[in-house]
Amino acid sequence: MTYRVLIDANDEKGLVYKVSSLFFKYDLNILSNSEFVDKESNKFFMRSVVDGAIDKEELTNALLEVLPKNTAVRVIEPKKKNIILMATKEMHALGDILVRHEEGELDANILAVISNYNLLEPFVSKFNIPYITISHEGLERGEHESKIIEVINGFEDVDYIILAKYMRILTPRFVEAFEEKIINIHHSFLPAFIGANPYKQAYDRGVKIIGATAHFVNNNLDEGPIIAQDVIDVNHAHNWKDMQRNGRDVEKVVLSRALKLALEDRIFVYANRTVIF
Amino acid sequence: MTYRVLIDANDEKGLVYKVSSLFFKYDLNILSNSEFVDKESNKFFMRSVVDGAIDKEELTNALLEVLPKNTAVRVIEPKKKNIILMATKEMHALGDILVRHEEGELDANILAVISNYNLLEPFVSKFNIPYITISHEGLERGEHESKIIEVINGFEDVDYIILAKYMRILTPRFVEAFEEKIINIHHSFLPAFIGANPYKQAYDRGVKIIGATAHFVNNNLDEGPIIAQDVIDVNHAHNWKDMQRNGRDVEKVVLSRALKLALEDRIFVYANRTVIF
Amino acid sequence: MTYRVLIDANDEKGLVYKVSSLFFKYDLNILSNSEFVDKESNKFFMRSVVDGAIDKEELTNALLEVLPKNTAVRVIEPKKKNIILMATKEMHALGDILVRHEEGELDANILAVISNYNLLEPFVSKFNIPYITISHEGLERGEHESKIIEVINGFEDVDYIILAKYMRILTPRFVEAFEEKIINIHHSFLPAFIGANPYKQAYDRGVKIIGATAHFVNNNLDEGPIIAQDVIDVNHAHNWKDMQRNGRDVEKVVLSRALKLALEDRIFVYANRTVIF
Amino acid sequence: MTYRVLIDANDEKGLVYKVSSLFFKYDLNILSNSEFVDKESNKFFMRSVVDGAIDKEELTNALLEVLPKNTAVRVIEPKKKNIILMATKEMHALGDILVRHEEGELDANILAVISNYNLLEPFVSKFNIPYITISHEGLERGEHESKIIEVINGFEDVDYIILAKYMRILTPRFVEAFEEKIINIHHSFLPAFIGANPYKQAYDRGVKIIGATAHFVNNNLDEGPIIAQDVIDVNHAHNWKDMQRNGRDVEKVVLSRALKLALEDRIFVYANRTVIF
Questions:
Q1: Residues C57 and C90 in one domain
Q2: A164, B34, B135, C158: which one has the fewest Cβ atoms less than 10 Å from its Cβ?
Q3: Within a 10 A sphere around the Cβ of C80, how many other Cβ atoms?
Q4: Among A residues 257-276, those touching chain C with beta carbons less than 8 Å apart
């Protein structure tokens, strides 16, 4: 049996020794191993992939026993994770995930695509993925989200909710309901532009680079822990619609990259940051 | 004689025709030619490199005659431009320019390096460039800048003032005294961080990319027209000092790139943007 | 009426003047204009987008009349181009084009997908694009290609044939039948690796970057004029299958970028090079 | 005392346990830790930074005792390494290292610059670094190298020889004399071009990207284990001299990056590859 072991502890001397001696005791073979210590916050992170004959609970308990109090231990058996995609009207980020899924590149079951419009239904249906339209029209934000939460909770074991260009702001209630489970993609600029139509503002400033950031969603809009980022060059000949169009190419690549990191259990979140192995 | 011809006009039908027919009439050979029309602002930009036997004034006047009112025409004879470098304590951006200058890569005379500290004097002196320390200590910002302005104005025909990590904020008076002549480099992030120690803030957010922006300085601090930008990857293992150190590699490359564009007269500035040919 | 005007001539004085005076005479508005002179080969390239009331033939003839002998003039009315996609077993490059097409991002009709296997048929059928399997089994290369050529020639006005990971070598006969119409994508490395399994070889050398090159296909395998290139970082922890997987992300982005340049008539080919406006 | 511990062993179960238990036994604090197992070659690599009261020999012996036969253990006390720079006529790569050294960014003593020309002497002298001209004129390759080897061997404890655009081919004798100590930078292209003037060839092919590769030098010219690589974009408007000039910016950045990795003892070499922590 192969397991991914993720350990998140307050740093102290001997942690690697304690973990590795336990792996040795249980005759587990280490296939890969990554560690990181954040000295400022005195936090220790470790991700090991091990192989051997022990069950998940036993390994978890054995680790908890030797490690300091308040250590978080996750022993994960690699298998397809359950994800829900949310989208609004754009196809690029959603389509990139659906094609990767179709090609067998993603270790995931796509349970459904949820949208506030029915626009993408014909497209999503091609892939035999359930498409659920939950219109926001005539509803207060809270009511609308309640309906979405209800639909999501109707599925069992949802691991991640991927906002593949879902263009509505989420309330704290929604975010808290799925803590560290919601991954969003948004355009990014240097410098940043706040307010309406950032692409128009970026054009007006004549930026030479535009980017995209994939991040976990927390209560501060577009401010959660960053998972992946990338950029492309633009120039004066790109009007803001060109920038937006080109920006899509970065958005989809960065979101898919973040999704894969999540599916492979490579991300630790702490404070407002990520450690990625 | 070779000239760079830069034209900045309100767009109307026939501009390229008018310019190129005049080049043809004066038997000028077009070595290169770039045009751009910004439809939103209805502005036309053209940069031609031409070769032939006509003098600068004659060509300028001939162009002004055929082109619409309020057209700006610059006919520039390629030659070394006069630049002044300003720095504070860091060597990397300054050093990159000095080495390029030494290697003969820059079409520029470096008139002087001005700094508010004498720290870099031994380094700059190696290159036989005058180093002028103008300490800000005990002076109000206005007084300090007056002294710098006086020194700069003591030189003839200063084309550009390059802020190679000059770490003091410039007042509107200073900026206006050298409009579209001051080029600055500053670190950039996606998202942007405002306030003290942006590298520390960027680290706290766990950014995966850091960048640098070279721009003309106008009255809005760090908000002038962007000339060049670039980024490098960082990860959780880089603490904020690592980020700062790695950021220097981008800063120096981007500033030198912007300087070269300026020395080759490739930059148009309008509104708060640049067109770069 | 809007036209794209592409001119490819031996360079001589007055070409821009001649073209722009003709545009002016016919009251055509220049929406954008790009020129390039390759001094070494003395070649002049110009791409203009003009708007006005003249028909295609008239404009072509008028241009040919004023321009030097042997000038190639193309006056193109922007409209959807007809493309055929060819693939073998992989979905990523094909899927990227199909999703962009579905989203309306490509100015193209996809006439068909041709493959030497039927593997991708279920996927392509989702998009209501004809899928034509032409198996190579039991056929000599020449026979197999004859069948493909026949199928392609059964369509009218095929503008481009896009090899979206079509993994068979084309013979000179095939290539000559569709000169400057076939665009291929292939992985690229620094340094290059010749022979079987280049990803394995790249891994063995420990490359830190892998790339992709989109190019027109000519008789020298993988050696045609380059249209677009890009790279991504890899490291020692990526085995050659990881590299191959990550390489796909670059391949699909670069192929789609090249396709768009072709659809917008932005590419000139000469000698073994491209000029791209 | 802080040490960098580098272990290179045949992989077997329990290696991390054995090493970390020994660190624990000697009360050493692990400041950072990286491991990598190359499954194909069954090789295990580990780099730890530890802090504690034990001397170098004792720690080395203790490690060798618990680890399998044929394990290579290096316990390194971080201190300035001794490097010799070799150059020919170009200043950019050399200058970048000299400025970083001057700024105190490099953990290195530059013992000397050796060149086959005296051209760069005035430049290097500014930095108070000995400049040794060893002309190759009138000498056979072997004689010339003997003189260089003699000079190098006149210095004690040379850790690295950095070829900062040293443009002469080294013989196997020279390379073997300084195994895994010589780092070179050379331009790289996708695809690669063999023979005279690769920039000219790259121009002729119309490449859109040019790169640089820093690598250890072994007997196969330009074929040693790769340490670092990077690229920049070029286009049809860059002639081959422009490409060469722009290429310098990548060369210097990549060489300095490789040098820093070497100075920090982050590189393992095996087979013809590197593992870089």
A1: no
A2: B135
A3: 12
A4: 257
Tell me the CATH number at D41.
3.30.70.260
Closest partner CB to D103 (pick from B92, B103, B105): B92
Q: With contacts defined as CB-CB under 8 Å, which chain B residues touch D249?
A: 253, 256
Helix and strand totals (H; E) in chain C: 8, 13
Q: How far is C200 from chain B (nearest CA, A)?
A: 26
Q: Look-up: residue for tokens 């390494």?
A: D81
Query: Tens digits of per-residue pLDDT, A191-246?
Result: 677 677 888 888 888 899 999 999 999 887 667 999 999 999 999 999 989 999 99
**What is the number of CB-based contacts under 8 A between chain C and chain D?**
97
Q: Residue B193 in contact with residue A162, Cβ under 8 Å?
A: no
Q: Is C20 close to B24, i.e. CB distance below 8 A?
A: no
Domain match, C123 and C232 both: yes
* pLDDT bucket at C200, cuts 50 / 70 / 90: confident
Q: What is the CATH number of the domain that holds B152?
A: 3.40.50.170
Which among C38, C222, C230, C242 is annotated as catalytic?
C222
| D126 and D248 share one domain | yes
B182, C11, D267 from B165: Cα distances, Å: 12, 45, 32
**Residues 6 or more apart from D200 whose CB is under 8 A from it?**
D240
Please tell me whether residues D161 and D65 are part of one structural domain: no
Active site members of A: 222
Q: Which chain C residue lies closest to A119 (C-alpha atoms)?
A: C103
| One domain for residues A124 and A234 | yes
Residues C106 and C64 in one domain: no
Give the count of domains, chain B.
2
Q: What does the alpha-carbon distance between residue D159 and residue B80 come to, in Å, rounded to a whole number? A: 42
Q: What confidence score (pLDDT) does residue C36 get?
A: 94
Interface of B with C in 230-249 (CB under 8 A): 233
Residue in B closest to A258 by C-alpha? B208
Contact across the interface for B30 and C23, Cβ inside 8 Å: no
Q: What pLDDT shows up at residue C265?
A: 98
Q: What is the pTM of this model?
A: 0.94
Claim to verify: residue A131 and residue A28 sit in the same structural domain = no
Please list the active-site residues of D. 222
A32 interfacial to chain D (CB closer than 8 Å): yes
Q: Does B195 touch chain A (CB under 8 A)?
A: no
Q: What's the rounded Cα separation, in Å, for the pair D78 and B200? A: 26
B192 pLDDT above the threshold of 80? no
Looking at C30, C58, C76, the residue that finishes a domain is C76
Task: Report the pLDDT value the prediction gives residue D135, as an integer from 0 to 100.
Answer: 98
List pLDDT tens digits, range B207-241: 999 999 999 998 776 679 999 999 999 999 999 89
Domain boundary among C50, C76, C102: C76
pLDDT digits (tens, 9 = 90+) for B147-191: 999 999 999 999 999 999 999 999 999 999 999 999 999 888 766
Asked whether B142 and B171 are in contact (CB, 8 A), the reply is yes
- Count Cα neighbours of C196 within 13 Å in the Cβ-side half-sphere: 0
Give the span between the Cα atoms of C237 and D41, in whole angstroms.
Answer: 13
Question: Distance, in angstroms, between A213 CA and closest chain B CA?
Answer: 8
Interface A-C: count of C-beta contacts within 8 A: 45
Cβ atoms of C26 and C62 within 8 Å: the answer is yes
Cα A158 to the chain's mean position, in Å? 13
* Alpha carbon distance A12, A22 (integer Å): 17
- Give the span between the Cα atoms of C102 and C108, in whole angstroms: 10
Chain A residues with beta carbon closer than 8 angstroms to that of C253 = 249, 253
| Residue in A189, A205, A230 closest to B273 by CB | A205
Q: Do C184 and C214 belong to one domain?
A: yes
**Which residue in B222, B230, B242, B249 is the catalytic one?**
B222
Name every chain D residue with its beta carbon within 8 A of the beta carbon of C225: 205-206
How many whole angstroms separate alpha carbon D264 and alpha carbon C46? 52
